[in-house]
Amino acid sequence: MNSKKIREMQRSLTIQDMNRHRRLYNYIFLLYRNTSIKKDFCPVTNQILLTLPKLSFVPCFFLSYCLCRYNELFQISIEDIKQNSSIKIKSSKSKHIKLLNSLPLYKPVLLRSIDLKTFISVVSYDKLKMDILKTCRLLDIPKQKGLLDATHLFRHIEASWLSENKVPLEQISYKLGHESNSSTSKYIHPIKQFYP
């Protein structure tokens, strides 16, 4: 989905769209709080996720889980989430396609209540960036130099954390959707720079 279509979709949201998103939020937030998936994220990411406004939680959860770019969020299929399938994302910058593990299964009755027409994000790109920046200020997370924008923050934090935990560079590149390790190395920083 191109950025023009994303903006048009977000301008035309209905109460029904918001209710669908609320059900998705309830499911993803409970899955996040009540399963071991939190261990898959850097502690700084966990702090940010738990402090974000509700409407920004779901897109930021998927930005962190999938390490995708903002415009790649809209490739995430609600059907794949409901069927507990792996998540497939094609890089918006190359021919790279990554296949990610499915989310852990949690409360199937809640999962069934999510409509296939649900949007992953109901906030605008600008609003999401503002929410991330505001949350970082609230948590005293230092402003990061060299970020393309705030939605890239999770890619940098998680890549740095994975590297610190001795995950091979090739695996980090794959998760970020990079075709070369040299691109990935620009995302790896001393993890302490993300801490207050």
List the helices and strands and how they pair.
Layout: H1 3-11, H2 15-34, H3 43-51, H4 54-66, H5 78-82, E1 87-90, E2 97-100, H6 108-112, H7 125-138, H8 153-164, H9 169-176, H10 181-185
Antiparallel strand pairs: 1-2
Description:
With 196 residues, this protein is mainly alpha-helical. The protein has one domain: Orthogonal Bundle (hpI Integrase, Chain A), CATH 1.10.443. The chain is 51% helix and 4% strand. Helix 2 (15-34) packs across helix 4 (54-66). The mean pLDDT is 91.
Q: Top keywords for this entry?
A:
two-stranded antiparallel ribbon; mainly alpha; hpI Integrase, Chain A
- The name of the CATH topology is hpI Integrase, Chain A
Per DSSP E runs of 2 or more residues, the count of β-strands stands at: 2
Biggest sheet features: 2 strands, antiparallel
Q: Compute the number of helices.
A: 10
Spatially, the strands of the biggest sheet line up as 1-2
Within CATH, the superfamily carries the name: Intergrase catalytic core
Rounded to the nearest angstrom, the distance between the terminal CA atoms is 36 Å
Shape: globular
What is the highest CATH level, the class?
A: Mainly Alpha
Oligomer: single chain
Low-confidence stretches: none
- SS strand fraction: under 5%
Q: From N to C, what is the helix and strand string?
A: HHHHHEEHHHHH
The overall number of domains is 1
Query: Could you tell me the radius of gyration in angstroms?
Result: 16 Å
State the helicity in percent bands.
Answer: 40-55%
Q: What's the rounded overall pLDDT mean?
A: 91
Alpha-beta content class: mainly alpha
**CATH architecture classification:** Orthogonal Bundle
